[in-house]
Write a structure and sequence with these properties.
- The chain has about 150 residues and is an alpha+beta fold.
- The protein has one domain.
- About 45% of the residues lie in helices and about 25% in strands.
- The chain is built from 3 helices and 6 strands, in the order βαββαβββα.
- The protein has a 6-stranded antiparallel sheet.
- Helix 1 packs antiparallel against helix 2.
- The mean pLDDT is about 95.
């Protein structure tokens, strides 16, 4: 089952919670670029994110994902790859947080779903996003094996 060209796409992104500096932007841009070049990506490689307006500034990275929110599905192999990509994306921001003691907020579908502080992911990311998604993938794989 190929993925339909009009399959809905969602955005997962991280944004710095701390006061933003020019040094932060350069470090994050380099980390996102390094991750983007590290593998082939199912949809698109992650991108550096910098948006500023009169009242707000978002600095971080973004990753587009095929929606797998029920009832939507993509082929199991594609979903497994997308989980691996998401895990690598999250871990890249975990590494930045650990190394530089920065706090990142994580958003999915423009809603905050968790954070990373001093390299430690909160339970919403470890169990809610990555853990639950992996459990669902493993259940689907087990059903396919019979």
């Amino acid at each position: 089952m190929p993925i339909a060209p009009n399959h809905p796409i969602e955005e997962l992104f991280f944004s710095v919670v701390d006061e933003i500096t020019d040094d932060m932007a350069a470090v994050i841009a380099e980390a996102v670029e390094r991750l983007a070049k590290s593998r082939g990506w199912l949809l698109h490689p992650p991108e550096f994110l910098y948006q500023e307006d009169d009242t707000d500034c978002i600095l971080g990275g973004t990753l587009e994902l095929y929606s797998v929110m029920p009832p939507l599905e993509i082929p199991l192999e594609a979903e497994q790859q997308q989980w691996e990509e998401t895990n690598a994306f999250v871990r890249a921001f975990q590494d930045l947080s650990s190394k530089y003691h920065w706090e990142f907020d994580c958003f999915y579908r423009n809603e905050s779903i968790g954070f990373i502080e001093d390299g430690i992911m909160n339970v919403s990311l470890t169990e809610g996003l990555l853990g639950e998604w992996k459990r669902v993938i493993d259940e689907k794989a087990a059903k396919m094996r019979g």
